[in-house]
Amino acid sequence: MPRTATPRTRTPAVPSSATVAADPSASPVPRVADPDRRRTSASAVLRSVLEHGPVARSTVARLTGLSPAAVTEHCARLAGLGLVREAAPPRTAGARVGRPHVPVELDDTGFVVAGVHVAVPYTTVALLDLRGRVLARREVKHASADPARVLSGAVDALQALLTRAGRPALNVGVAVGGWVDRDSGTVVEHPLLGWRDVPVREQLGARTGLPVHVDGHARALVNAERLFGRARGSGSLLHLFVGNVVDAAFATRDGVHHGPRSQAGAIAHLPLAGGSEPCGCGRVGCLQVELSERTLCRRAREAGVVDGANPMRVVAAAAGGHPVAVRLLVERARMVGRAAALLLDVLNPERVVVTEVGAMLRADCLAALREEVGAARADCVAPTSFPLDSVLAVAGGAVALDVLFRDPLGASPRFN
């Protein structure tokens, strides 16, 4: 998979996303200085159209540092591939001399991408448009954690969605927790599923006939935030995912940090001050056992709040005024804030995004999380940009869309 190049030009101070929208000249799109200029230039143009479209080609040239002729050529190529289109020219009062500037915008009516997110109890399969919007999705419960059965069920559900959609898919993105090697498309280790060295890319590619890209779900969601979320334009971004699996991802303007064999972000066994849960590693208070949804649900069962292992039942009980459910969610959010504070101390990102059910749905949980982070840094911490019912679908699709926006000319065999 091609790597994103490091920009060589001087980068100005990073504006907020609101400033970017108001002032296109402040775009975070990287300027181009790469040996593979054709690929990198096409990526810069497509990113500019995504972020600012409908946008004039002259503005794209200013944003990217490319010549107007180069931008015109790339826009024509991208339009020929079905990725951008000309938009209606803006209305102007009175007569205007000369040819009007016809803006370009992302063409979100043709292709879709497929997203697959493998969680512990179920797999979410979805179709997304090129703006990262979920068009259709389905959850497939796991009758078994056997990887062949899980992936086969995902393919069957995906094919059903594609048949109904009537739109061609460019590629498939797969997001999974645990240790995921992006370069080989392999789930190296997922302890909760019992997976080791599962060749996900190979197996899904053989069944779907489409390019398949695989990554960890925290890295997938940090890319979603950078492409489509409220954190777009941030100079550096930390994403903390708290579900059954607890992991993190860190991105700068140059891209997401993966590390050797994509092991970056493995925080499951970081010690959490105040933790009391015994971990299988032999220690007490590791992040994952302390914060996981399994632990939350077990504590709720022991307190007589709910039955089963669905965290949404705890949320529903809290919404109904059950004081123990409220306490469990707020205490968990506070511990998530403690973990976020630890990672803030180490990485010092500009922004932190948290995907955790309490912080996403309850103001008291978000307040507890931010209080633990501390007043000086509380404003930089926010819940995910995506709704609870679509965040996992977005994670899978973001793996595919990240590839498209990094290399639009080579993202699919359809373009060759």
TrEMBL record:
Transmembrane regions listed in the UniProt entry: none
Span list, region Disordered: 1-40
Signal peptide residues on this chain, from the entry's feature table: none
Biased composition (Low complexity): 1-13
InterPro entries: ATPase_NBD (IPR043129), ROK (IPR000600), WH-like_DNA-bd_sf (IPR036388), WH_DNA-bd_sf (IPR036390)
UniProt xrefs under Gene3D superfamilies: 3.30.420.40, Winged helix-like DNA-binding domain superfamily/Winged helix DNA-binding domain
Pfam family name, one: ROK
SUPFAM superfamilies: Actin-like ATPase domain, Winged helix' DNA-binding domain
Membership in a protein family: Belongs to the ROK (NagC/XylR) family.
PANTHER family given in the database record: BIFUNCTIONAL UDP-N-ACETYLGLUCOSAMINE 2-EPIMERASE_N-ACETYLMANNOSAMINE KINASE, ROK (REPRESSOR, ORF, KINASE) FAMILY
Name of the protein described by the UniProt record: ROK family protein
UniProt organism field: Streptomyces lasalocidi (Streptomyces lasaliensis)
